[in-house]
Inverse folding.
């Protein structure tokens, strides 16, 4: 889940795995969802592949969706061949550039055939929906959860927050876990950054 938005529809369209990066500034997304093998992502994103990889370049310069195979002719570093473990490597690249100067992108793979035009169009719609939904601050964060995030933003540790709020440390940890789950954050600091970005703090 990303906030309250499920990625099940993306998983259905990408049975061989996918990588989704939402709200990208330069090259770093606020949220990443990765169901691809860790080794694939490490190889694809390491220098010099990331900025020179045709999928990355295409997603920076375009708004829409394209088949992975269509990028192979513009791939001097052979980064498209890194999908070999998806045997055969059928994939799609989606880039969504929003009016807020942020962008989101995704790499999607299947092992049986090329993506149909209608499937690429649906992937683009889903990435755009995920991007736009993230732009709407979650209303399900409680005041107590937001208070913990505000304290963390001020640099306080959980023990200090517990003392200041006169609440058990286990309760503070639970509030933080709840906030992370609702925001789709990887860590407490990531939850603070996301909440701040969404104007909640």
């Amino acid at each position: 889940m990303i906030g309250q938005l499920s990625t099940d529809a993306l998983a259905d369209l990408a049975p061989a795995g996918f990588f989704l990066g939402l709200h990208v500034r330069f090259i770093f997304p606020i949220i990443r969802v990765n169901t691809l093998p860790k080794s694939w992502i490490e190889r694809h994103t390491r220098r010099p592949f990331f900025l020179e990889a045709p999928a990355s370049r295409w997603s920076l310069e375009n708004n829409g969706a394209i088949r992975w195979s269509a990028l192979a002719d513009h791939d001097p570093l052979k980064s498209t061949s890194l999908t070999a473990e998806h045997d055969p490597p059928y994939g799609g690249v989606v880039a969504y550039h929003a009016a807020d100067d942020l962008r989101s992108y995704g790499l999607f793979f299947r092992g049986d055939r090329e993506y149909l035009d209608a499937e690429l169009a649906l992937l683009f719609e889903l990435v755009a929906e995920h991007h736009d939904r993230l732009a709407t601050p979650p209303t399900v964060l409680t005041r107590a959860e937001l208070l913990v995030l505000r304290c963390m933003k001020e640099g306080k540790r959980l023990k200090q927050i517990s003392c200041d709020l006169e609440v058990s440390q286990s309760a503070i940890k639970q509030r933080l876990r709840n906030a992370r789950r609702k925001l789709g954050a990887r860590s407490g600091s990531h939850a603070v950054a996301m909440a701040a970005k969404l104007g909640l703090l």
Q: What stands out?
A: The beta strands are 17-25, 28-34, 64-67, 90-97, 103-110.
